[in-house]
Amino acid sequence: MSLFFIYLIQVNIALSLFYLLYAIVLKRDTFLRLRRLFFLSVIVFSLLYPFFTIPGLSDIWTSRSSDFQETTATVIIGEPGMAMVVEGEAVAPVAIPWEKILSLFYIAVTLVFVLRFVFQLLSIYGIWTKSEKQIISGIPVYQLKNNITPFSFFSLIFIHTEKHSETELSQILLHEQTHVRQWHSIDIMLVELLYLFSWWNPFVWLLKREMAMNLEYLADNGVLREGIDSREYQYHLLRLTYHETAVQIVNNFNVSQLKQRIIMMNKAKTPALQLVKYVLVVPIFFLFVMANSMYAAENGDKSVAGNNLPEPPPQKKGEAEELFIVAESQPEFPGGETAMMKFLADNIRYPVIAQENGIQGRVVCDFTIMKDGSISNVNILQGVDPALDAEVKRLISSMPKWKPGNQRGNVVNVRGVFPVVFRLQWDNPEDDPLTSEEKSNLFKSDLLDDLKEVEGMMILEEVVVVGYGMAEQK
User: Fold this and answer.
1) CB 463 within 8 A of CB 93
2) Three-state SS for 19?
3) How many Å apart are CA 241 and CA 254, to the nearest integer?
4) Distance CA 470, CA 357 (A)
5) Whole-prediction pTM
6) Model confidence over 71-99: pLDDT tens digits?
7) Sheet strands (E) in 107-220
């Protein structure tokens, strides 16, 4: 997965959690200015936190997690060795490039939203060029030609003056001046730009709506602070309900959620003691930075924060990188097969989250031992769960350099396969939710059987990781 999509997922996970915090804890108060600061802060934080890590956090958490896992899992390995099967030739399965398909689909839809956004900007520009500038009560206003709802965009205020009485014009100007004076268009543009690339996240849609509503609350509050009668102002909003709006990226004088605006105008002020709720944002900020630090520590240059690491030297165009399934001299783990099995037993873990959720099964992974002995192209051929799959990939990627394979006196790239079984065990067999037949089907792997039929395929000895922790808790 490309760094951009990793970054995009990290941003949207944070935005989703922050929206849930707002909806559950903060939505019902009347701290409108603080709410606006909350929205802006969480957006900026979500966009920036994937680039920052705190090195010490990942080390502390990893050491604690490792201690727990070592007491709750046992690794079982058969006789050290590699399975070499030389029989019939297998036909490679056709792989559907889902990642590429989804990437193209995302780019296409995003392009549609970008074009829509540009069209809205051009529409505002068109309205501006066709509007006549006037001065009303010392305020520059642009006279609309069509009967659409008054709106503002940054410092520009647009009103169809002939359709409103002097009282209504006064209230509209107070409303739109609040938008202009407090630079509400910055909030709108920020969330719109975020929406262009996160259109697939429903929480971003909800966040966009709530931000727009809060800006209208602030503008309504600005009108009422000038001594305008609340009931008269609300009746004025009702008269504008059926007017056409310009475009979505402006601050409209009237929006569809009129009932919510009227409720907010009549709502009693929230006690100042409830301001403490906003302190909850601080530990969530810390948790995201800690999670990103752990992710960067485990994935290195595959993470956004670790992308400043030096890249490997580019491959020369003249070099033909042939991949061998079997070579005259197969790759060797430093120290031999016994050392390799010890490395696997010492380093593999049964992820706690998988134990808690009762997840078990066989993961089959393939990898390439390069000419320099490094491990590359680690792929999951048969997965079970993201946590188990990631653990196997982490283990293989962390291997030290091998002694590379040799073919006719030349070092070559050699492909290998590594199967791992994650199995849960209960103290009381009756607590096991799976029957013997279900277990047999769960750990069965037709893919692994097919790979063993591939001529010369190098298959490492299968490792069995047994989890015990959840049985003790049960």
Assistant:
1) no
2) helix
3) 7
4) 9
5) 0.59
6) 455 666 544 334 333 333 444 455 678 88
7) 132-136, 139-143, 151-153, 156-159
Task: Name the 3-class secondary structure at 448.
Answer: helix
d(CA 279, CA 291) in angstroms, rounded, equals 20
Residue whose token pair is 């934080």: 45
Q: Give the whole-angstrom CA distance, residue 327 versus residue 317.
A: 24
Task: Answer for the pair 80, 340: CB distance below 8 angstroms, yes or no.
Answer: yes
| Residue showing tokens 């707002």 | 22
Integer Cα distance of 135 and 137 in angstroms: 7
Q: How many helices (H) and strands (E) does the chain have?
A: 16, 14
Crossing angle for the helix pair 3-21 and 32-48, to the nearest 10 degrees: 160
Cα separation of 177 and 168, whole Å?
14
Q: Give the integer Cα–Cα distance in Å for 1 and 370.
A: 21
Q: Which residues have a Cβ under 8 Å from the Cβ of 57 and sit 6 or more positions away?
A: 289, 290, 293, 294
Q: Is the dihedral of CA 20, 21, 22, 25 positive or negative?
A: positive
Query: Which residue type is seen at 148?
Result: I
94/97 Cα distance (integer angstroms):
9
- Contact call for residues 187 and 39 (beta carbons, < 8 A): yes
d(CA 201, CA 16): 8
Identify the CA nearest to 68 among candidates 405, 404, 418, 349.
Answer: 349
Residues of the chain under the 70 pLDDT cut:
1, 55-95, 240-248, 250, 252-256, 297-321, 427-444, 453-456, 468-474
Count of residues making up the chain: 474
For residue 226, report the phi and psi dihedrals to the nearest 5 degrees.
-85, 5
pLDDT in tens, 219-234: 999 999 988 888 888 8
d(CA 326, CA 360): 31
- For residue 233, CA distances in Å to 168, 180, 187, 238, 362 come to 8, 20, 25, 9, 67
Structure tokens at 51: 């680039």
Could you please report the per-residue DSSP string of 93-112?
A: PPPP-HHHHHHHHHHHHHHH
Query: 227: phi > 0 → left, psi -120 to 50 → alpha, else beta; which?
Result: left
